[in-house]
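User: I'm curious whether this sequence folds into something compact or stays loose and floppy. Could you predict its structure so I can see for myself?
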Amino acid sequence: MKRIRVLIADDSATMCTILSSLLAQYPDIEIVGCARDGEQAVQMAATLLPHVITMDVQMPRMGGLEAIQRIMETAPSRILAVCSVQEREVELSFRAISAGALELIAKPEAGPRYDLAGWGQKLVESIRLMAEVPVVRRRHASTQARASVVRSGRVEAIAIAASTGGPHALVTILEALPATMPVPVLIAQHMAPGFVSGFVRWLTQVTPMSVVMPRSGDACRPGHVYLPPDGHDLTVGRGGVLTVTPSSEMHCPSGDRLLTSVARAYGARAAGLVLTGMGDDGARGLLAIHEANGATLAQDEESSVVYGMPRAAVEMGATVVQLPLSLIAQELLHMTTSSAPAELGGVSQ
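Assistant: Here's the prediction. I'll summarize afterward.
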């Protein structure tokens, strides 16, 4: 059995002990060291070559953000940011995503009733998933092949599903869309509990569009980005009325539920996009939009952190168009302002 080599980076001796004790219970996990500050984390990453690093975002000498940047430059690894859900640290956690961290997980809460063993199991599940992600830097995607989407009318709503690598991809897309975007953008981004509010604040800082966590009964409005609150799914009905419900799906929020509802509500006037992520969530919903004669896109393999979700959508026949991340915003904007067929610089499957 190949063991997953894990480096812990946290300035708290208590937290290092907790993480070490929890991870030591799993035979497929090997703890290779515990760095007490960012500078030590950079040095140990280069010498120990861990498969996964759990990284605190606030540490002395060199903070977690700078440490992540240095590690990704000198000894790239899969980094899981372990941080508090307090407002300031949540903001830092999303900056950690921009620096190169793949995922976020909240630190365990203090108190005798907290299920520390359950938290440890979730941490191990995240580590195991991270260990499967290729350690590569983002590259410029090829645009040699070309494909076109034939449309009969203008898009009136855009739905997006994303998971691992999604926050960075969404920022790249949304910061390039104007405040005058003539349609709503609805998003299902898989995210650990406690981070959605911080993600909304982060997006608000980078996009001129209005970013909202809606309530049931709210209406979709142009120029707005909608994300459901923690633990909830977002769907839309006819007339653009939004519904927010507690999620019962394995993936939260559910990309399939969101995209399928957009297909039913908007039909051929819908556009769907599946971004980077593990698994196949969003593929069936994208297929529903395709079958309703809406426009469907997927992020291409070269620009995806994890190509699982886009691959599933392509293999299911939900789309033949794959675009590099750098071209997606341009195409979404084109769809909302033109009814002519779009010429896309993507990869045709």
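Summary: Residues 147-348 form a domain with the Rossmann fold fold (CATH 3.40.50.180). Residues 138-148, 340-349 have pLDDT under 50 and may be disordered.
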